[in-house]
Amino acid sequence: FGEQPLRGRRVLVSAGPTYEDIDPVRFIGNRSSGRMGFAVAAAARDAGAEVTLVAGPVSLPTPAGVTRIDVRSARDMQEAVLKAARGSDIYIGAAAVGDYRPVDTADHKLKKTDGSPLRLELAENPDIIASLASLPDRPFLVGFAAETKELAAYAQDKMLRKGIDMIAANEVGPGRGFEVAENALQLYWRDGGAALSRMPKTELARRLVAHIAQRFLAGIGT
Ligand code: PMT
User: Fold this and answer.
1) Alpha carbon distances (Å) from 42 to 49, 60, 187
2) Which of 45, 117, 144, 184 is the most buried (most CB within 10 A)?
3) Which pTM was predicted?
4) Ligand 1 test: best mutation among 33, 129, 182, 209, most atoms within 8 Å of CB?
């Protein structure tokens, strides 16, 4: 496909964690640094695509030439992604979207109780990539799967359940997947897959994008 297989294509990438506010000073978040998603955005740009990056709260510089939209919660991210998905050819969901949020966000800082447990009631967040899967004119959908065990089985199940085209599975845990500069990915699509061994996220993202471009172009008969 040459050096720039995604020339003229629009790619939308999500990256980073989401923060679900408990009160004005506390939130529920996760360990995602955004590094993987930012590397994917830069790799898609290098593959010739026009790239939009929807980023949760992270402290990373925007890759040159990439349009960035900052969000905080999963619902903010869903709104931004749904808006930007119109006209996108490919969506790559590298964000670690919070599955739950507090039912209520307190207006003022919660005070300590008298020693009795504090209970937080949580509501399920929308599944962003699954909501894209049900759109009539949907982009080619690539999800990530962050697992601590049974990588292959859980990832393939996620791909089918969410109705997406491809999934990039990584093992996560202390020093693995999240935050660190290196990662390894197991890729799955309906009738195949590929293993990408441990390497810097920048290089891994380039290889991932090459696979995505190949599957995407095969799907549209190019
Ligand atoms: O950011 P880094 O520190 O570099 O770490 C990279 C990473 C480990 C966060 C990244 O490689 C990764 O695995 N991202 C996905 C993390 C995740 O939330 O996976 P999941 O298995 O919970 O979700 C599966 C897929 O559904 C993902 O594409 C996710 O974006 C999407 N999803 C999940 C929940 C939800 N409510 N909406 C979604 O769209």
Assistant:
1) 10, 12, 19
2) 144
3) 0.97
4) 129
